[in-house]
Amino acid sequence: MDTLSILCLVQGSDGTLYAGSDGSGIYAIKDGIVSTYGFREGLQEGVVLRMLEDEDGGFFVSAGSNLYYWKDQVFTSLSDFQKGAGSIFDFYLKDGKLWLLQNSGVIAVDAEALLAGEKTNAEVFSFSLGLTGSLNANTWHKVCEDGSLMLATRNGISVFAFKGVEGQPPFVVLNEVKVDEEVYRAPEEIRLSKNAKRITFDFSMLSYNDPDKYQMACYLEGAEDDEHIYTEEKSAEISYTNLSGGEYIFRLKVYRLGEEKEIYEYQIPVYKDRRLTEYWLFWLVSAVLFVLLVALVMAGSFSLKMRRIQKRHKEYQEIVNQSLETFAKTIDAKDTYTNGHSARVAAYSREIAVRMGLSSEEQENVYYIALMHDIGKIGIPDSILKKQSELTEEEWEIVKKHPVIGGEILKDFTALEGIADGARYHHERFDGKGYCVGIKGEEIPLVARIIGIADAFDAMATTRFYRKAMDITEILKELERGSGTQFDPEILPIMLEMVKDGTVTIE
Question: CA 362, 365, 366 angle in degrees (round to 5)?
């Protein structure tokens, strides 16, 4: 066998074992001999998901989204019927019909007409008839003693009786979603990057009961208020360009002509990442910085005398100090459990810088940079920051993005050298196992290594919703345990000394 990955096994009525492979078609195994059947015999795909033998010794074969009939070593494509998008996961022969399982439900077609090459209508049994959730390839289903089929869905179990429905109402299927040049089929949700420019929805209304009595409609909730109505068209597509970052819902509906209440609705959530300029706090910070810049320029024009220059410089330094402290309080106010955190971390960081013998200017820079280390939390939803229970893995991954967001916000702030480094790298570890970049040792900027130690101390010394503040003894043990792994082993002793001599205390 060229392909050892086998997706299904069926034993034929003559005792031959047939193996559907993941790329090389079908292997027939009998009396120790392996024969291969695929492209040369008319199979256009190498992947075989399922096989089902009929009474004539032929096999229905699912090759992903395409259906074949295999008999006398020849594959015949079966395509003269309307089916949904996506792969055919399984099929059953019952009462002269071939019942196909796809993502959106069960499709029934007349087996004899299908094999004769006659165009045949397909009956669709889906959510509007009680299907609890979509189907997928990674499930197996059970035929019960009474002949019904128990279906494993994404939302529980549905029981299917292999019976038709009179007067089945129409429904809408989403054929595909195209984001710029990338195509999605049968998605459960759409997530757009902040750079995505165009999203196109391709959809169709399926009806086998007086389709001219119905019309379909669509609209993108969050981007428009009015529906787009399609009275004569049974298939359509619609595009949206340059959406703002945020949450949307694309809705598809079916109406009876002349009625306002929909009889069927399909919806899919759409999420688009926000650009930095779409955060209101970015513009607030920009406006304040612009005011500061204008103030500094104006001050320069009146700097003829040294005394006035020094006086103005001191005034503007105080403005910067107060502004940054105000921003820090704004950031901390998003999370009541860490209120005052930025100011404390800044104070601890400055004291470390003092004891390291850094210059007065460097000490002040460390203080201001530490004030802004958590600015990236403005990009984290309040529902996560203020959650009163343990975060999920997905929520924690969102929280871990705040250093990147902070670095992006501050990257163009040139008035204070290194301010972006404090926000971007303060969660890196000395052994390289931190986030978000994964740098280690002295690759991590000095100010970020200082802030990392001060930040860890304050986190342990502060009561959170999921635990109480640790006592000094426990904190010292945790800090010492992290020497050389989480923390810089040359800076950590300074923090330990500050705790032991009472410079740093827990309220």
Answer: 90
Asked if pLDDT for residue 83 goes beyond 90, the answer is no
Encoded amino acid at 388, one letter: Q
pLDDT digit string, tens, across residues 398-451: 988 989 988 888 888 777 788 889 889 999 999 999 998 899 999 999 999 999
Residue 480: both structure tokens together:
């010492």
Q: Measured in whole angstroms, how far is the alpha carbon of residue 427 from the centre of its chain?
A: 23
**pLDDT tens digits, 323-345:** 565 565 566 556 655 568 888 89
Sequence-ordered list of residues with C-beta below 8 angstroms from that of 291, at least 6 positions apart, any chain: none
Q: How far apart are CA 172 and CA 261, in angstroms?
A: 16
Q: Give the chain's radius of gyration (CA, Å).
A: 33
Contacts of 238 (CB under 8 A, 6+ apart): 200, 201, 218, 228
Q: Does residue 53 contact residue 92 with C-beta atoms inside 8 Å? A: no
Please tell me the predicted confidence (pLDDT) of residue 320: 59
Q: How crowded is the C-beta side of 154, counted as CA atoms within 13 Å? A: 11
- Other C-beta atoms closer than 10 Å to the C-beta of 182 total 8
Amino acid identity, position 222: G
Q: Which amino acid is at 66?
A: N
β-sheet bridge partners, residue 200:
178, 239
7, 58, 185, 186 from 154: Cα distances, Å: 21, 32, 17, 14
Pair of tokens at residue 250: 């694309």
Residue whose tokens read 């929805």: 201
Count the Cβ atoms, other than its own, within 10 Å of residue 164: 11
Helix (H, G, I), strand (E, B) or coil at 231: coil
Structure tokens at 337: 């459990």
Q: What confidence score (pLDDT) does residue 334 get?
A: 60
**Mind giving me the DSSP string for 45-103?**
-SB--EEEE-TTS-EEEEETTEEEEEETTEEEEE-SS---SS---EEEEETTEEEEEET
d(CA 332, CA 327): 9
CB-neighbour burial class of residue 268 (10 A; exposed 0-12, middle 13-18, buried 19+): middle
pTM: 0.41
Residues 468-502: b if buried by 16+ CB within 10 A, e if exposed: eebeeeebbeebeebbeebbbeebbebbbebbeee
Distance CA 271, CA 250 (A): 11
**Residue closest to 63 by CA, chosen among 28, 24, 96:** 24
pLDDT at 480 over 80: yes
- pLDDT given for residue 312 in this prediction: 57
Residue 409 has a pLDDT of 85
Q: Which amino acid, one-letter code, is at 65?
A: S
